[in-house]
Design a protein that fits this description.
Helices cover 20% and strands 0% of the residues. It has 97 residues and is mostly helical.
């Protein structure tokens, strides 16, 4: 699971992030957000219940959570196939991804 704080989050919301163990920051989008890969991720489901209509974390980890629950209830959900720590694969700031 990846939790993304979307642009436009209120200052009050931002102050509360990090209070729970699952809210561990690991990245920042630098530059123009409109040109980032984040704009390609479907966000229409929103947060998890009871806050919105997104996937239920408990059901994701059921035996068939990834194979039945997510594809069946959330067909537009995007998946991260792979990711890289840029410095570890030798791509510097002057390189284009």
């Amino acid at each position: 699971e990846v939790f993304v704080v979307m642009p436009g989050a209120s200052e009050e919301q931002l102050e509360k992030f990090g209070e729970n163990s699952w809210e561990t920051p690991f990245a920042v989008i630098e530059g123009d957000l409109e040109k980032s890969a984040l704009t390609k991720i479907y966000s229409g489901y929103g947060d998890m219940p009871p806050f919105a209509k997104g996937p239920d974390s408990v059901k994701i980890y059921d035996v068939d959570g990834y194979t039945t629950y997510l594809p069946g209830k959330f067909p537009k959900l995007d998946y991260i196939d792979r990711c890289y720590v840029v410095d570890e694969v030798g791509i510097g700031e002057e390189s284009e991804l």
